[in-house]
Amino acid sequence: MDDTPFGDRREAGRTLARALAAWRGRGDVTVLGLPRGGVPVAYEVARALGAPLDVMVVRKLGFPGHEEYAMGAIAADGVRVMRPEVADYGVPAAAIDAVVARESAELARREAAYRAGRPPLDLAGRVALLVDDGLATGATMRAAVRSARHRRAARVVVAVPVASREACADLQSEADEVVCAMTPERFRAVGLWYRDFDPTEDDEVNALLAEAAGLGGQPGGQR
């Protein structure tokens, strides 16, 4: 029998929502999914909590030649986070600048694609509940937290179905609250905890955001 805890991201979102039940029904919570994989998780969380859904567009800055391993991350409002140990690897400044330029272009493309002319939801004075499908290094989530603070969120909550223990602990110093439904001792990679971890495409992100917007910002029909 396959004992992988999550069938897919939507199922993981429903599991995570149960750990966030204390936020249900409040009028001051905005759920923000990190595209692309965090959006299906965030949709289910927003639906369960009766909260509006938006995206928090961030991009990982991968090491040149090892792009899957994060050296930092950027957010849409100019926030840039670098892991402190990057200096130990001797990556040339020109190489870092090239990665930043490439990922900034992709970030701008996604902002335009997902917003479809809609402005970001106002976070001023609200609880920003930041959701992704998992945390390995936590670099992209750290950028998301700082972006939410830049947008004057009153409280920033990080919430993921699964995370490395190190990433979950590190984010405690950034966010007001960190909810990691699972922190396996042998984490290895986010995708190992899902039976279906196929890439989330732009069309799915847009469909979920459009459905949430069409329901008055309250997924699941709660208005």
Explained architecture:
There is one protein chain. With 223 residues, the chain is an alpha/beta fold. The chain has a single domain, classed as 3-Layer(aba) Sandwich (Rossmann fold). It is built from six helices and eight strands. The strands form two sheets. A five-stranded parallel beta sheet has the order 2-1-6-7-8, sandwiched between helices. Strands 3-4-5 form a three-stranded antiparallel beta sheet. α1 crosses α2 (38-49). The longest helix is centred in the middle third of the chain and has 23 residues, at 93-115. It is globular. The N and C termini lie far apart (41 Å). Mean pLDDT is 91; it is low at 217-223.
Summarize the structure.
The protein has helices at 9-19, 38-49, 93-115, 139-150, 165-171, 202-214, and strands spanning 29-33, 53-55, 58-63, 66-75, 80-82, 127-131, 155-162, 177-182.
- Span between termini: 41 Å
Would you tell me which CATH topology applies? Rossmann fold
Query: Helical amount among residues, as a percent range?
Result: 25-40%
Catalogue the unreliable spans. 217-223
- Could you name the CATH class? Alpha Beta
**Overall radius of gyration:** 17 Å
Level-2 CATH architecture: 3-Layer(aba) Sandwich
Q: State the domain count.
A: 1
Q: Provide the β-strand percentage band.
A: 15-25%
| Main beta sheet strand tally, sense and closure | 5 strands, parallel
| Count of DSSP H/I helices | 6
Write down the oligomeric state: single chain
The chain-level structural class is: alpha/beta
Strand order of the largest sheet: 2-1-6-7-8
Topology, number of strands: 8
Q: Give the overall shape.
A: globular
**Mean of pLDDT:** 91
Q: Helix and strand succession?
A: HEHEEEEHEHEHEH
